[in-house]
Design a protein that fits this description.
By secondary structure, this protein is α/β, with parallel strands linked by helices. The chain has two domains: 167 residues, DNAb Helicase, Chain A; 257 residues, 3-Layer(aba) Sandwich (Rossmann fold). Helices cover 49% and strands 12% of the residues. It contains 18 helices and nine strands. It has a nine-stranded mixed β-sheet, with helices on both faces. β8 and β9 form a beta hairpin. α4 packs across α5, α11 packs across α12 and α12 crosses α14. The radius of gyration is 26 Å and the shape is elongated.
Length: 448
């Protein structure tokens, strides 16, 4: 017999039956099981059909027992001549409902082993197929394995029933959140009301002309996410050093002018404030990389190694090298390079299932217009960025161009694209002494 035929596909019929039996014997355990298992993790089709039916009945608040289950399986068209006998056997073979979570772990473990085997086969095909360079194959392999580790298999067709279950999970999470936005709050309520926070899998572009404060706004958002929302934030700065970034964060956190921190001219109270802010900042989970030649592939690889990750901030797109090229802009087409980077960032956001906030320069086109507010076409090499981004926010400050305006610190976050809903303009206040932003209603609030 061929070696492949002799291999046993990892699964446990007894554990799968025990999970189903326990859910029918003690329906109170169903919510716990549904949090741990998905229908596709069952090896036998009949167990998948039963589990999917129980999930559907639970979602609609229906009574679940052997009689009602059989009735619903008939409605769904998955009832066969042997189903009733199989359910009776399943219940009789279940040792106890008390150990249902142990049985669920066995089912999940076997499913992971099966998926790992499939991924290993795919990687072997990539290696032997000679269809790409080693770096490209390694990147694909890492994505596949990362997807398994996080319960998100990459590049696999899923039945709509499995996707429906995921949607129900998201709806339940949104309902439990109440009035909170579904994504990570930016710290600016009016902006969150438009874009609904920074959501998983999204590529959010923050674009502006130099000097508008896009790095400052990004750091505001990162600080709020880490300090107030207790999120893990990875910041990749291609322009500023780690020390420069942290100095800005300390200035905002301690409400001490940046100039004082740079010159060291601090009063005794300011020293105490900066010490307190440093302690609070040290307790956050912000990771900073200031490699000026980092690529998207390298960012993705670093982020996959983090046990927990909620948000990625990149400053900024036009300074990046195209993934895997190792060449500078002069050796390749700018437009094509930006297209590659933009696409890979969107793929990274989806694969890692976290929002990616990427800063971008605007072209000089706005400078020649009477109204210099940003528009989508101002994005440098805008075609790919505009297409790949889920949200595009343009930053504008009239006081930058005209010092005589009534409020030179009035800033506008112009939502130019929003896949989740409307576009709008949100007013912010630029706080130059802290190189930071605040909400318009009160710049004295703790916006971070």
């Amino acid at each position: 017999m061929d070696e492949l035929q002799r291999r046993t596909i990892p699964h446990s019929d007894r554990a799968e039956q025990a999970v189903i039996g326990a859910m029918l014997i003690r329906p109170s355990c169903i919510p716990d099981v549904l949090e741990k298992l998905k229908a596709e993790e069952f090896y036998r089709q009949i167990n998948r059909d039963i589990f999917e039916t129980i999930y559907s009945m639970f979602a609609y608040g229906q009574t679940i027992d052997p009689v009602t289950l059989i009735d619903q399986m008939k409605v769904r068209g998955v009832f066969t001549d042997t189903t009733e006998e199989y359910l009776t056997e399943t219940i009789s073979l279940t040792p106890t409902a008390a150990n249902v979570m142990e049985y669920a772990l066995i089912v999940r473990d076997r499913a992971l082993l099966r998926s790992l085997g499939e991924v290993a086969g795919s990687i072997e095909e990539l290696v032997n197929g000679g269809s790409g360079e080693a770096d490209s194959v390694l990147e694909t392999a890492e994505r596949m394995i990362y997807g398994l580790r996080n319960g998100r298999e990459i590049g696999r067709l899923l039945p709509v029933s499995a996707v429906v279950q995921n949607v129900f999970d998201e709806l339940n999470a949104a309902a439990e959140a109440g009035n909170r936005v579904p994504g990570i709050p930016t710290g600016f309520t009016d902006l969150d009301n438009v874009i609904l926070g920074l959501n998983k899998g999204e590529l959010v572009i923050l674009a502006a002309r130099p000097g508008m404060g896009k790095t400052s706004l990004a750091l505001n958002i990162a600080l709020h996410a880490a300090m107030r929302e207790k999120k893990t934030v990875a910041v990749f700065s291609l322009e500023m050093s780690r020390e420069q970034l942290v100095t800005r964060l300390l200035s905002r956190a301690a409400s001490i002018p940046s100039k004082n921190l740079l010159t060291g001219h601090l009063s005794e109270q300011q020293w105490r404030d900066i010490a307190s802010a440093a302690q609070e900042l040290s307790e956050t989970d912000i990771r900073i990389d200031d490699n000026s030649s980092v690529t998207v592939a390298e960012i993705s690889a670093q982020c996959r190694r983090l046990e927990k990750l909620d948000l990625i901030v990149i400053d900024y797109l036009q300074l990046m090298q195209s993934a895997g090229s190792g060449h500078s802009w002069s050796n390749e087409s700018r437009t094509q390079a930006v297209s590659d980077i933009s696409r890979m960032m969107k793929i990274m956001a989806k694969d890692l299932n976290v929002p990616v906030l990427c800063l971008s320069q605007l072209s000089r086109a706005s400078e020649s217009r009477q109204d210099k507010r940003p528009v989508l076409s101002d994005l440098r090499e805008s075609g790919a960025i505009e297409q790949d981004a889920d949200v595009v926010i343009g930053l504008y400050r009239e006081g930058y161009y005209n010092k005589e305006v009534e409020d030179p610190n009035l800033s506008e976050a112009v939502v130019l694209k929003n896949r989740k809903g409307r576009t709008d303009t949100v007013e912010l206040t630029w706080i130059p002494e802290y190189t930071s932003f605040g909400s318009r209603d009160s710049v004295h609030e703790d916006d971070y």
